[in-house]
Amino acid sequence: MASHIYQEILAIFGLAVLFCSTVTADHFQPVCRSQVGFLRHPQNCSLYFMCIRGVPSPPLSCPPGFVFSIRYSVCLPVDTLFNDCYVSRTTKSSPPTTTTTTTTTSTPTLSVEERCQMDRTAVFPHPGQCQLFYNCSNDAQPDWPSFFDRYLDECEYPLLFNAVTSRCEDFHDVTCGDRVEHVNRCSYLRSKCVTSHCVPCWVRFATCSDLPDGMNVFVGREWTPYYAICKDNRSLGFDVCPFNDTLKIPEFFSPDQGECVSLYEVPREHSGYQLDCSTRDDGLYLDDVTSRPDLYYRCHGGHLTEINVCPSGERFDKATDLCVSLGI
Ligand SMILES: *[C@@H]1O[C@H](CO)[C@@H](O)[C@H](O)[C@H]1NC(C)=O
Ligand SMILES: *[C@@H]1O[C@H](CO)[C@@H](O)[C@H](O)[C@H]1NC(C)=O
Ligand SMILES: *[C@@H]1O[C@H](CO)[C@@H](O)[C@H](O)[C@H]1NC(C)=O
Ligand SMILES: *[C@@H]1O[C@H](CO)[C@@H](O)[C@H](O)[C@H]1NC(C)=O
């Protein structure tokens, strides 16, 4: 009789329980407080029960990597922001002795709301993302998309939330464990666009994942004066190539050379005035691209090796390979 009802309800709630299956019971005795609804197992967030006519179903299990959300009454991926399950995680402590002890504390599973009700000043990590945390004493709506997650807060990029000290700290000092560690600024929620007119994050900030430390190409702004400054796969920001005072011309960041180069070294297809040596014999040449009489360059082995400007009031004389007075 009872199992017949469950089948009926399973069909109705088909979507929510699509991937879920019944599992063997344990010591926990679920008690329904309403005729129809869901209960989550207090120790195991991936187990839940359906209440039908006030009677709990056998335990149902979310698929691997999913947990049951009390708020949304569905199984959700464990790393989603909508995950309202918090189970305290393994904390490592290294006493000054030679051994390292690992203690696993298994506290009853509480929702964020429940934890904050118990302790109005609690600060604890978000289970999925290492830069996110909950601050029960901060109920203000942030100005970035928080996906309606009350008490949710986020460390400033590139800081991460240290679950041991309950503070945002340098990523070197934070062990994320199972929490996802984002290195891209654009993966932080506060970088995401709130309005439709907002400039996409990757255009505003450079990404540095898998790039070496130092100056790097600004992906999305290749062959412009902009370049990314990277450290430990993280973007410290970007900078702009200086104006070349010697050649009196702007510089662009060359993705090929990994540095700022004058427009005389930037290919034409990237809006540059590249002085082309590929078909030239070794020697000095007068600027034949922007036709400056004082600018000359050296080709060696088919490559541009030197760009020079004659002193003020002089021009380059191809016949003598020398700078001569303008009057001559
Ligand atoms: C929770 O229950 C599922 C399904 O029975 C099981 O695979 C998983 O190991 C349990 N997790 C914990 C932490 O007990
Ligand atoms: C939590 O919020 C309170 C009140 O806004 C604030 O004073 C405190 O610094 C916050 N804690 C953290 C770790 O951000
Ligand atoms: C940066 O990323 C590379 C490749 O993913 C990795 O091997 C390296 O350890 C990372 N460096 C840091 C400091 O996280
Ligand atoms: C200007 O460009 C030339 C040629 O690339 C280079 O040798 C020189 O160092 C640059 N000068 C400045 C001030 O950047």
From TrEMBL:
Chitin-binding type-2 domain span: 29-87, 113-178, 274-323
InterPro entries: Chitin-bd_dom, Chitin-bd_dom_sf, Chitin_bind-dev_reg
Keyword hit for Transferase: no
Membrane-traversing stretches: none
GO molecular function: chitin binding
Pfam families the record matches: CBM_14
A cellular-component GO term for this protein: extracellular region
Heme among keywords: no
Alphabetical UniProt keywords: Chitin-binding, Disulfide bond, Glycoprotein, Repeat, Signal
Signal sequence residues: 1-25
Classification via PANTHER family: CHITIN BINDING PERITROPHIN-A, CHITIN-BINDING TYPE-2 DOMAIN-CONTAINING PROTEIN-RELATED
Protein name: Chitin-binding type-2 domain-containing protein
Record organism: Littorina saxatilis
Origin organism lineage: Eukaryota, Metazoa, Spiralia, Lophotrochozoa, Mollusca
